[in-house]
Amino acid sequence: MGAGMQDFAAVERGRYLTSAADCGSCHTIPGSDHPFSGGRPIETPFGVLVAPNITPDRETGIGAWSDEEFDAAVRSGRRRDGKRLYPAMPFPYFARMTSEDVKDIRAYLSTIDPVRNPVTVNHLPFPLNQRMAMAVWDELYFTPGIFKDEPSKSKQWNRGAYLVQGPGHCGACHTPKTFLGGDESSKPLQGYTLQGWVAPDITSGQGPLAQWSRDAVAQYLKTGHNQFAAAAGLMGEVVELSTSRLTDDDVKAMATYLKDVSGPKPTADSSADAKVLTAGGAIYQDLCSACHKSDGTGVPNLIPDLTHAATVNTGDPTTVLRVILQGAQSVATDREPTGPAMPAFGWQLNDEQVSAVASYVRNHWGKAQREPTEASRSRHEVHQSEPEQDAKPK
Question: What pTM was computed for the model?
């Protein structure tokens, strides 16, 4: 095989891995005509970081970097000057990839249009803006080492484990975090709340996805829809820019692995007042049942089934409250080109009514039943973010 064919093959592998690693979600401003040119703010519990430019521009991008320097950043969290990266760059997961994987990603990124776009990455307050503190963080939470197959598992399982644990970096959102922002390693993929959305427990066991089949999980990853749910918000971006671009075999492999990860059984500790639930039920029948149906089952592949929705069956009401207040646009993909939207009701319902209907939905169909509270705080957080539909129809 000639050098040209080898280069082409490396670029195509890199293109695929770049999608698998969801690089576009962070490094491209939504709607921008300049992919991977950086500038997108990334909210963290500690402040805001801004994704850098990773186009091949030599001055403001990575065009002047060596392959070794690029590998050190991706898999070891080290900048060209040797200083440590913040874990908003998910290098603890990318460390599972091989050096060949990362070299292929670099080969692909070298083919995109260079864009001059200087980015100031660090907007954290003092003393968090001092990168030397990352030495302690790395010692606590970063374990280098490429992914190794589990001999007792199937080839499909191992492929799925590699994608979930490595380039897919699913745990970056779905694994609970310590007060320092590191993964709680004893609770992998058991759910976390970030940027105003719940990344639910995606283990099988008795978690929110326990009744989803492997094929249902794979369909959701590939199309953004299945008979139970529709991807929106942060997960909508993941589907659009990453998992929908993977092969059918790879999303099935990811589903195979996820269905084999055990999780805790949710507890039911509802304290919702009966009058609140009655009021919430009336609001639901008036405003929600036309789409979600009176029994909450929705419409397969279009309207989420609330009886099996992961965000209804999780202990954190953040997403339920957000979607009631703000509405949500589900993702449209090649396989499912219709992306239905839920209208916002924040303009129509007061905080007491929002809490009531959220309580009704989560207590009537949820398995992790807790009364949603602080709807006023959720409303404030929604208004602080860019609204999708949080306005009265004109």
Answer: 0.89
Tokens, residue 169: 């970096």
User: Tokens in use for 130?
Assistant: 């001092």
Check if 155-258 and 274-384 are the same fold: yes
Handedness of CA 45, 381, 280, 319 (dihedral sign): negative
- What per-residue confidence (pLDDT) applies to 113? 95
- Binding-site annotation: residue ranges: 23, 26-27, 170, 173-174, 288, 291-292
Task: Determine the Cα–Cα distance for residues 54 and 36; give it in Å rounded to an integer.
Answer: 6
Residue 293's pLDDT is 94
Provide the percentage of residues in the chain whose pLDDT is more than 70: 89
Residue 127 near residue 133, CB atoms below 8 Å? yes
Considering the domain delimited by 3-115, tell me its CATH architecture.
Answer: Orthogonal Bundle (1.10)
pLDDT at 2: 42
298-329 per-position pLDDT tens digit: 998 889 999 888 888 888 888 999 999 999 99
Q: Give the CA count within 13 Å in the CB-facing half-sphere of 354.
A: 26
How confident is the model at residue 126, as a pLDDT? Answer: 74
Angle between helices 155-165 and 248-258 (to 10 degrees): 90
Torsion of Cα atoms, 87 then 88 then 89 then 91, to 10°: 30
Query: How many whole angstroms separate alpha carbon 205 and alpha carbon 193?
Result: 20
Q: Residue 30 is encoded by which pair of tokens? A: 């939504």
3-state secondary structure of 353: helix
The domain segmentation of the chain, as residue ranges, is 3-115, 155-258, 274-384
The low-confidence residues of the chain, meaning pLDDT below 50, are 1-3, 386-394
Among residues 252, 245, 324, the alpha carbon closest in space to that of 283 is found at 324
89 burial (CB, 10 Å; 0-12 / 13-18 / 19+) is: buried
C-beta separation of 70 from 143 below 8 A: no
47-50 β-sheet, strand order: 41-44, 47-50, 122-123
**CATH assignment of 155-258, among 3.40.50, 2.30.29, 1.20.1420, 1.10.760:** 1.10.760
- Cα–Cα distances (Å) from 184 to 142, 153, 181, 269, in that order, read 12, 25, 9, 24
Q: Which of 179, 178, 197, 199 is nearest to 189 (CA)?
A: 199
Binding site per annotation, positions for heme c: 23, 26-27, 170, 173-174, 288, 291-292
Fold of 274-384: Cytochrome Bc1 Complex; Chain D, domain 2 (1.10.760)
